[in-house]
Backbone:
């Protein structure tokens, strides 16, 4: 918020003052509860498990080198078993950009593959290989997913079993998204309302949300600057 006020409006405001004003006007978001609504993708037929190539080292100095993915559950309406959406993003660790995603009513391998194929389609020619990290979900162990990575010379990496910190970089994205969508204080009435809100937020996050860690730029701006220097 401090960076947004400074860059967009030329206002230099202390972060403590912003916090106080937001608290007074009840604008603070409710904290995301990691345990609540956590989808367990490891249940089902087990396939090939890849080694952990990241070891919780999420930093990189180049785009499209380290990518993380996961699946998170979003509920709407009466929050019944049939009133759920599953969000499967692929996040670039260089800029934090959501470079592809799918939203579906069932967490099937097909939708994870659709997101992966989007990543492979937009990835530019670069002098280094990409590594995609996930948990040990059955979608990521599937033959189709593993073969697609291999065919495109992409390294596969997986978290250790029951070690959420191994994919903390993707969990943090779900945290930000659910907090900023007021997911725990507001129930979206319909599938359409929830999906539209999710897609609108993703566009905002990539194209308009200024980040202090990106030197006051958006994820897409930061990525484009890096690619221009590489090419």
Residues:
């Amino acid at each position: 918020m401090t960076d947004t006020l400074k860059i967009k409006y030329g206002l230099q405001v202390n972060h403590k003052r912003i916090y106080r004003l937001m608290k007074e006007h009840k604008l603070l978001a409710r904290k995301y509860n990691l345990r609540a609504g956590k989808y367990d993708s490891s249940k089902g037929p087990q396939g090939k498990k890849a080694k952990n190539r990241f070891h919780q080292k999420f930093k990189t100095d180049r785009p499209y080198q380290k990518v993380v993915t996961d699946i998170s559950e979003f509920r709407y309406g009466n929050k019944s078993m049939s009133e759920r959406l599953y969000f499967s993003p692929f996040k670039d660790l260089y800029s934090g950009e959501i470079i592809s995603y799918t939203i579906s009513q069932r967490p099937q391998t097909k939708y994870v593959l659709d997101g992966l194929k989007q990543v492979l389609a937009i990835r530019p020619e670069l002098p280094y290989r990409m590594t995609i990290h996930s948990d040990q979900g059955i979608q990521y162990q599937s033959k189709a997913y593993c073969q697609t990575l291999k065919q495109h010379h992409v390294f596969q990496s997986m978290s250790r079993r029951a070690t959420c910190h191994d994919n903390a970089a993707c969990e943090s994205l779900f945290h930000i998204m659910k907090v900023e969508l007021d997911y725990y204080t507001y129930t979206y009435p319909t599938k359409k309302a929830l999906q539209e809100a999710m897609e609108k937020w993703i566009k905002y996050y990539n194209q308009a949300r200024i980040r202090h860690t990106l030197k006051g730029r958006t994820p897409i701006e930061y990525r484009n600057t890096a690619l221009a220097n590489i090419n």
In short: The chain has a mean pLDDT of 88.
